[in-house]
């Protein structure tokens, strides 16, 4: 078991204003019983995007034993906070499509003789309380197809997982484990016409801009993804312009820090849309 960073909320200082909630990309915070609660460790990356938005200084980052996510240990903490928090946690898991963890949580409650019923949301699938933009979806294994309409051939997208933005992808998203990862600078899919078939096929996609986004954030997030998941390989696709190389050393350093032998491939795309290597 290893330690990882995660946020900590001082209930004595928190006034339940909720200003931190829109700034939690993973959707891990909710106001319950007048206090902001961390609903699930699973969706907290420990980077503290919410800290600067708390006027009471109630949110800090602590480093504690976490290792790989353990739903049983999380439930031990959740049940202490009452049924409203338990219900919110279950709906959070349901909303992000984490069926396995939801089943483990229900088994824990059954063992403790705790009954919590979730409202059925007919017609809304697995949305629950999750933001549609960050709701986890994984359609790998479903066969795609291309078809011809008139003179144009319509090619099936190879994008099988969601979200794709590095800022929005939970560190422990189930689709990150045992996968080949493609990290793409966000101009690449626009420039490279064969992006889906040549680069994305059979891979999980993460997208970011090494020039406009926070490099320190990316360094920490990618490091945590490497450390907490079994990544089979990483491919980094970027443009030929100098600023686009910014993620290259960040990814290589994240692999090194993980202590794992993760195969790495660097792909360079020209501004004219040609693959250089």
Structural class: alpha/beta
What's the alpha carbon Rg, rounded to whole Å? 20 Å
- The CATH class of the largest domain, by name, is Alpha Beta
Query: What CATH architecture label of the largest domain applies?
Result: 3-Layer(aba) Sandwich
Main sheet record:
4 strands, parallel
How are strands sequenced across the largest beta sheet? 10-9-11-12
Q: Specify the overall morphology.
A: globular
Parts with pLDDT < 50 across at least 5 consecutive residues: 121-130
Write down the CATH topology of the largest domain: Rossmann fold
> What is the helix/strand order?
EEEEHHHEEEEEHHEHEHE
Concise overview:
The protein is an alpha/beta fold. The chain has two domains: 3-111, Alpha-Beta Plaits; 158-269, Rossmann fold. The chain has seven helices and twelve strands.
Helix-strand blueprint:
Layout: E1 3-9, E2 29-32, E3 35-38, E4 59-65, H1 71-78, H2 83-95, H3 99-111, E5 137-138, E6 147-149, E7 152-154, E8 161-162, E9 179-185, H4 188-191, H5 195-200, E10 204-208, H6 215-228, E11 231-239, H7 247-258, E12 264-269
Parallel strand pairs: 9-10, 9-11, 11-12
Antiparallel strand pairs: 1-4, 2-3, 5-8, 6-7
Highlighted features:
277 residues; alpha/beta; Alpha-Beta Plaits; Rossmann fold; 4-stranded parallel sheet; two-stranded antiparallel sheet; 12 strands; globular
């Amino acid at each position: 078991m290893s330690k990882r960073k995660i946020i900590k909320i001082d209930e004595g200082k928190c006034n339940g204003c909720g200003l931190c909630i829109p700034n939690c990309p993973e959707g891990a915070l909710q106001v319950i019983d007048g206090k902001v609660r961390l609903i699930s460790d699973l969706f907290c990356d420990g980077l503290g995007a919410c800290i600067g938005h708390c006027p009471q200084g109630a949110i800090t980052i602590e480093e504690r034993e976490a290792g790989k996510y353990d739903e049983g240990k999380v439930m031990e903490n959740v049940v202490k906070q009452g049924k409203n928090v338990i219900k919110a946690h279950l709906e959070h898991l349901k909303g992000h499509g984490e069926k396995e963890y939801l089943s483990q949580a229900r088994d824990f409650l059954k063992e403790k003789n705790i009954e919590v019923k979730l409202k059925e949301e007919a017609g809304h699938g697995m949305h629950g309380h999750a933001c549609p933009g960050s709701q986890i979806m994984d359609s790998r294994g479903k066969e795609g197809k291309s078809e011809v309409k008139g003179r144009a051939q319509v090619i099936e997208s190879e994008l099988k997982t969601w979200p794709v933005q590095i800022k929005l992808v939970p560190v422990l998203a189930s689709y990150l484990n045992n996968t080949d990862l493609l990290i793409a600078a966000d101009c690449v899919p626009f420039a490279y016409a064969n992006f889906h078939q040549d680069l994305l096929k059979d891979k999980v996609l993460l997208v970011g801009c090494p020039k406009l986004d926070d490099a320190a954030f990316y360094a920490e997030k990618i490091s945590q993804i490497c450390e907490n998941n079994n990544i089979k390989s990483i491919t980094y696709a970027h443009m030929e312009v100098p600023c686009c190389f910014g993620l290259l050393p960040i990814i290589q350093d994240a692999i090194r820090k993980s202590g794992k032998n993760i195969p790495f491939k660097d792909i360079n795309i020209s501004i004219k849309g040609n693959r250089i290597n």
